[in-house]
């Protein structure tokens, strides 16, 4: 889908578009694998690919700091958590039947309808909008935003993380 | 680049995530699908940040990343507890909420 | 005009500027106790005591320097104003004598920007004025004594270190609040105290009653805390713009709030609503009716905690808050105009209700707890009727004698009655065994009941006097009645504890352990050995109990008492006097209870009114320019002496023309709008002149109450008078009244039984009903009603129209019903599918609506 749109837009930076298209295609493929594969560990590895793709897209969109955070937090920490989760729940390492619900086909129409809607809305609103070319965002700007206008959400987030840490300990300890 | 490229990519990822949440039975896989959805949202945030030339979108994306990390932590802890109590993490066996 | 000449520096000093250390040091102490307390030779107690001692030294220095500062202001004003005053006196004698001519003594403010958001700076810092100076000293002093007392009292407790950590943090929270420069800091200290009170009341959480009491205290106070947040926000939005325009400050700053409330520009509705919300917070924290129920239950904590909670911290916080931003309440409730203020009504109700409850308590600590509630009612009544100074003075004296009483109660239970607090079962005749405790108890009881030379007389009678002076006759008599009730219930408690024949543990008897546990669940275990199980029956249970502390070889009476408590009472001693560590704080406090009243002995003349001079803010209008110069960032030292004469010359000039006749409306801050460019920070409250007749009246009432109570006690409890014993069984009225009081007016039943059941249960039930009937019904009805329709169609249309069609429709409808029933499958995935599907549909609808 995005490839079609890509071809239509020929008046802009080609290399960037090509990179975007390749990465996007890879991400969509990997994402489909995540939700269809029969092996839980493989699903996790495909997910790594999607997340790495997302990070690459962030770089294309001039958001270096977010990209680095994405790599550190998602690929570094969250994926390790997932793998631990898989190991601790003794999932079979090989392929496994019954990973899907009996009524899993219900998901297809829902996803398709949702996609149709989103695609229609996006194209309708932003059909010809071109993203500006921008250099990397200075991290300083982001930190300024965090520490002045978004300070209260920042504190709130700190509490969320604390609560999550305590909650995870309480839930997962054995007694 | 066209803005719509990013938006469509995000839409695709989002819908795949939705499909995963609906179709998957294994709780860990459901959590992974939720990660897909969150990443799709983040892509949109970054794209709009670029479009409007402000860093607010990036700040929000960072918030989402942090919240997602917390969510995975708690979610997996819950999965672990469910597994300990039932020796299974199949969501269709968890029907305490049955009306 | 004269401003430049009059401007002179007020003295300041190191202690005043660095008063923030007073709160910081205990906080550091807390961290140290948590970190290394267990490894210290005294397990952390020495850190807590040292930090409080340092705080006390700093607070003393602060107090002395504040007194110097006030003196310097007065000296300057005498010097500079001499001429003007003489001049003005010749023109308008009443204004010059009117008492408004005292110079304003500016609070010493230090503040740092804590964080800022969108141009709004949230500061943290210290603001020292008379009130803060007084309370800082009291808190540091009382906490130090209580900690010293605790060394012996909780010796060998399983959570000894944590006890000291919590109690140190607790006073730190109170000090933070007292120092507060803005409302955010008040909330910070307020919440630290809430948390610590929870930890301390539930210190022995192994017994369910204790942890329930802790939860109750926490939640009840939390009900009020909502009021604090709401009130702070209301006041902020009301005051912020004014504060920015006039004082270059913001709506959280306490000085700004005070000035705004008195500026005459504040909307009276905002003030009223804000004052009500804030006062709800004070009702919760200070245990006023109807949220007083948590206070007596808070006796579940160790006795040192009760004494700290009830004397100088926690419960005083609410009174302090009212006193701190008094202008808001003054204007909001129209106290100056003699309105029947909410505060005064609540205070008066609390006085009587709590005093009556104190009569039916058998637990000595609960008598004291209700007495505290009642005394807090006095403070609130004073604040609600304009007797600011008397109320604040009562905080001071009450801290001394109530702390002393609680420590005496602890001493009795520790050494006299074998860890029981039951006056009827386990006490009696203890004056022979514990003479020092007895004397201290008597002294502080006399202070509490307001007998002439003792502390309570000067503060409580001052409140009563001022209430009467302000024209509230009903409250005046209520307060006098409350004084009589106080004398009576304290006589009862004293008699039951110290006179008569020793009973129960005081006579050396032992209860079987289980009974002991049930009857005296409050404080039967000093050592946490009786843990989750009731294994304390067996001699060595303590060694097997989880987390028990082995206590071999630790000396002291506390260890002996607690050790034999566990060892099945093999060698329980008879009642004896407590050790020196327990007695020293008691004696110090008893001496102070007798003497501190002289600090504001109004009746002796104005030279004795030290509190009025040094604690009460001066109701003088201040030139805002001078004030701004004084409190600019980092310039708190270079204070300009504000214009002294503003108030005497300008506002009174207006009244001087019309004020010749009697009954002229009062003038000055709080009664009229300050001149443009000036601001008031405290209303000009009126002080009652002491009158011999009123003093004699209240003393007479107290003496009469004593006489009645003593006679009653001797006949009732002493000779076991046949006619009186069993009165409650024989007289229905007496029994009804007794039951009514015994059940605390059924307030707990109201809260837990009626309100929880009436609100929470119906909600739960309603939700369940909704779930069962509506949601299920919708699903089922979709099927069944269509099926009924089908049936109806079958019966009526069947004969005329083709059979098959009707049958099919019926079946389809029925199938739909069955198909929809699994919607409530309890399966997350299906819910997810429904959720996303519904969102998609809804979004499509919205998009279509927008397109067209």
Measured on Cα atoms, how large is the radius of gyration of chain A?
Answer: 20 Å
Radius of gyration of chain C: 32 Å
The side-by-side strand order for the widest beta sheet of chain C comes to: 1-2
What's the number of extended β-strand segments of chain A?
0
- Going by helix content, strand content and strand pairing, the class of chain C is mainly alpha
Main sheet record of chain C:
2 strands, antiparallel
Helix content of chain C: 55-70%
- Beta-strand share of residues of chain C: under 5%
Helical segment tally of chain A?
7
* Major beta sheet summary of chain A: none
Number of helices of chain C: 35
Distance between the termini of chain A: 51 Å
What would you call the shape of chain C? Answer: globular
List the uncertain runs of chain A. Answer: none
Overall average residue pLDDT of chain C: 72
Number of strands of chain C: 4
The oligomeric state is heterotrimer
Mean pLDDT of chain A: 84
Draw up the topology in text:
The complex is a heterotrimer of chains A (175), B (99) and C (852).
Chain A: H1 2-8, H2 14-36, H3 40-60, H4 64-88, H5 107-126, H6 139-147, H7 151-172
Helix pairs in contact in A: 2-3, 3-4
Chain B: H1 3-23, H2 27-52, H3 56-86
Helix pairs in contact in B: 1-2, 2-3
Chain C: H1 3-6, H2 14-17, H3 20-36, H4 45-91, H5 93-97, E1 108-117, E2 120-128, H6 130-153, H7 160-179, H8 183-201, H9 208-247, H10 254-262, H11 268-285, H12 294-297, H13 303-311, H14 315-324, H15 326-332, H16 342-358, H17 364-384, H18 388-416, H19 423-426, H20 435-449, H21 455-469, H22 473-498, H23 513-519, H24 541-544, H25 557-566, H26 580-595, H27 610-614, E3 622-623, H28 624-630, H29 646-658, E4 678-679, H30 692-718, H31 727-730, H32 732-742, H33 747-797, H34 803-820, H35 828-851
Helix pairs in contact in C: 3-4, 3-7, 4-6, 4-7, 6-7, 6-13, 6-18, 6-26, 7-8, 8-9, 9-10, 9-11, 10-15, 11-14, 11-15, 13-18, 14-17, 14-18, 16-17, 16-22, 17-18, 17-21, 17-22, 18-20, 18-21, 18-26, 20-22, 20-26, 21-22, 22-30, 33-34
Q: Could you characterize the architecture of this molecule?
A:
The complex is a heterotrimer of chains A (175), B (99) and C (852). In chain A, 73% of the residues lie in helices and 0% in strands. Chain A contains seven helices and no strands. The longest helix of chain A has 25 residues, at 64-88. In chain A, 30% of the residues are buried. Chain B is mainly alpha-helical. Chain B has helices at 3-23, 27-52, 56-86. The longest helix of chain C is centred in the C-terminal third of the chain and has 51 residues, at 747-797. In chain C, strand 1 (108-117) and strand 2 form a beta hairpin. In chain C, the strands form two sheets. In chain C, strands 1-2 form a two-stranded antiparallel ribbon. Chain C is 66% helix and 3% strand. In chain C, helix 6 (130-153) packs antiparallel against helix 7 (160-179) and helix 33 runs antiparallel to helix 34 (803-820). Chain C has 35 helices and four strands.
């Amino acid at each position: 889908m995005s490839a079609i749109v890509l071809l239509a837009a020929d008046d802009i930076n080609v290399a960037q578009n090509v990179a975007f298209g390749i990465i996007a295609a890879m991400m969509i493929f990997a994402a489909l694998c995540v939700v269809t594969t029969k092996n839980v560990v493989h699903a996790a590895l495909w997910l790594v690919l999607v997340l790495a793709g997302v990070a690459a897209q962030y770089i294309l969109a001039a958001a270096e700091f977010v990209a680095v955070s994405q790599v550190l937090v998602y690929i570094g920490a969250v994926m390790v958590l997932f793998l631990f989760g898989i190991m601790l729940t003794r999932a079979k390492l090989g392929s496994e039947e019954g990973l899907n619900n009996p009524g899993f086909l219900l998901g297809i129409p829902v996803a398709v309808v949702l996609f149709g809607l989103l695609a229609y809305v996006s194209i309708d609103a932003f059909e010809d909008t071109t993203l500006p070319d921008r250099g990397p965002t200075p991290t300083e700007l982001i930190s300024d935003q965090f520490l002045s206008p978004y300070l209260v959400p920042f504190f709130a987030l700190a509490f969320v993380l604390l609560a999550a840490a305590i909650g995870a300990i309480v839930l997962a300890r054995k007694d | 680049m066209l803005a719509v490229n990013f938006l469509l990519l995000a839409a695709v990822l989002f819908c795949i995530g939705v499909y995963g949440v609906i179709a998957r039975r294994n709780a860990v896989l459901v959590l992974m699908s939720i990660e897909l959805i969150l990443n799709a949202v983040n892509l949109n945030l970054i794209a709009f940040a670029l479009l409007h030339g402000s860093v607010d979108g990036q700040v929000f994306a960072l918030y989402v990343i942090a919240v997602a990390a917390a969510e995975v932590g708690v979610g997996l802890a819950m999965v672990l507890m469910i597994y300990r109590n039932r020796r299974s993490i199949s969501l269709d066996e968890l029907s305490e909420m049955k009306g | 005009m004269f401003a430049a000449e009059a401007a002179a520096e007020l003295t300041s000093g190191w202690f005043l500027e660095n008063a923030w250390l007073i709160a910081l040091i205990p906080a550091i102490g807390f961290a140290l106790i948590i970190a290394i307390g267990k490894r210290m030779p005294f397990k952390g107690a020495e850190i807590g005591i040292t930090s409080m001692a340092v705080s006390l030294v700093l607070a003393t220095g602060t107090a002395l320097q504040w007194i110097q500062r006030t003196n310097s202001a007065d000296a300057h004003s005498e010097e500079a104003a001499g001429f003007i005053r003489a001049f003005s006196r010749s023109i308008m004698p009443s204004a010059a004598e009117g008492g408004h001519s005292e110079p304003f003594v500016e609070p010493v403010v230090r503040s740092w920007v804590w964080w800022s958001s969108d141009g709004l700076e949230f500061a943290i810092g210290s603001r020292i004025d008379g009130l803060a100076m007084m309370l800082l000293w009291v808190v540091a002093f009382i906490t130090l004594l209580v900690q010293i007392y605790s060394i012996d009292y909780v010796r060998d407790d399983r959570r000894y270190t944590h006890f000291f950590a919590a109690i140190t943090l607790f006073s730190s929270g109170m000090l933070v609040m007292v120092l507060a420069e803005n409302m955010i800091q008040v909330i910070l200290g307020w919440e630290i105290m809430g948390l610590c009170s929870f930890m301390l009341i539930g210190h022995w959480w192994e017994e369910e009653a204790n942890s329930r009491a802790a939860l109750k205290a926490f939640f009840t106070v939390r009900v009020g805390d909502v009021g604090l947040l709401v009130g702070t926000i209301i006041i902020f939005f009301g005051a912020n713009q004014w504060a920015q325009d006039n004082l270059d400050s913001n709506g959280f700053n306490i000085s700004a709030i005070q000035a705004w409330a008195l500026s005459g520009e504040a909307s009276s509705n905002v003030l009223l609503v804000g004052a009500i919300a804030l006062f709800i917070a004070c009702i919760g924290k200070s245990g006023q009716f109807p949220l007083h129920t948590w206070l007596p239950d808070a006796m579940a904590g160790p006795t040192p905690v009760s004494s700290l909670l009830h004397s100088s911290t926690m419960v005083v916080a609410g009174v302090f808050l009212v006193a701190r931003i008094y202008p808001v309440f003054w204007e909001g409730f129209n106290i100056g105009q003699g309105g029947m203020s909410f505060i005064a009504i609540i205070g008066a109700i609390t006085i009587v209700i709590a005093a009556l409850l104190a009569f039916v308590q058998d637990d000595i600590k609960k008598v004291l707890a209700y007495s505290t509630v009642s005394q807090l009612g006095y403070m609130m009544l004073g604040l609600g009727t304009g007797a600011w100074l008397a109320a604040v003075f009562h905080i001071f004296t009450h801290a001394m004698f109530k702390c002393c009483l609680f420590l005496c109660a602890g001493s009795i239970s520790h050494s006299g009655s074998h860890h029981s607090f039951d006056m009827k079962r386990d006490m009696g005749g203890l004056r022979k065994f514990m003479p020092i405790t007895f004397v201290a108890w008597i002294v502080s009881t006399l202070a509490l009941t307001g007998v002439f030379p003792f502390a309570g007389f000067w503060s409580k009678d001052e409140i009563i006097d001022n209430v009467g002076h302000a024209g509230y006759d009903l409250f005046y008599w209520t307060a006098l009645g409350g004084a009589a009730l106080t004398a009576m219930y304290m006589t009862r408690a004293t008699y039951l504890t110290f006179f008569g024949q020793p009973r129960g543990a005081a006579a050396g008897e032992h209860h079987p352990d289980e009974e002991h546990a049930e009857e005296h669940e409050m404080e039967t275990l000093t050592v946490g050995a009786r843990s989750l199980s009731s294994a304390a029956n067996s001699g060595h249970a303590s060694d097997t109990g989880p987390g028990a502390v082995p206590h071999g070889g630790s000396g002291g009476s506390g260890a002996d008492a607690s050790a034999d408590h566990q060892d099945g009472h093999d060698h329980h001693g008879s009642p004896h006097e407590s050790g020196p560590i327990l007695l020293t704080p008691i004696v110090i406090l008893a001496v102070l209870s007798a003497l501190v009243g002289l600090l504001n002995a109004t009746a002796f003349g104005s030279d004795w009114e030290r509190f009025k001079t040094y604690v009460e803010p001066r109701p003088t209008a201040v030139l805002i320019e001078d004030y701004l110069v004084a409190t600019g960032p980092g310039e708190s030292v270079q204070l300009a002496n504000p214009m002294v004469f503003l108030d005497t010359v300008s506002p009174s000039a207006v009244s001087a023309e019309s004020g010749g006749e009697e009954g002229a409306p009062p003038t000055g801050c709080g009664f009229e709008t300050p001149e443009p460019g000036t601001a008031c920070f405290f209303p000009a409250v009126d002080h009652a002149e002491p009158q011999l007749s009123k003093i004699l009246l209240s003393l007479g009432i107290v003496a009469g109450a004593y006489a009645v109570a003593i006679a009653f006690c001797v006949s009732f409890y002493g000779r076991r008078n046949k006619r009186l014993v069993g009165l409650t069984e024989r007289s229905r009225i007496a029994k009804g009244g007794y039951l009514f009081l015994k059940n605390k007016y059924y307030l707990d039943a109201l809260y837990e039984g009626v309100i929880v059941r009436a609100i929470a249960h119906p909600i739960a039930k309603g939700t369940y009903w909704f779930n069962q009937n509506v949601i299920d019904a919708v699903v089922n009805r979709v099927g069944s009603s269509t099926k009924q329709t089908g049936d109806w169609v079958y019966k009526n249309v069947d004969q005329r129209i083709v059979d098959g069609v009707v049958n099919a429709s019926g079946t389809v409808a029925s199938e739909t019903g069955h198909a929809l029933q699994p919607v409530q499958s309890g399966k997350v995935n299906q819910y997810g599918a429904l959720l996303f599907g519904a969102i998609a549909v809804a979004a499509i609808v919205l998009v279509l609506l927008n397109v067209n």
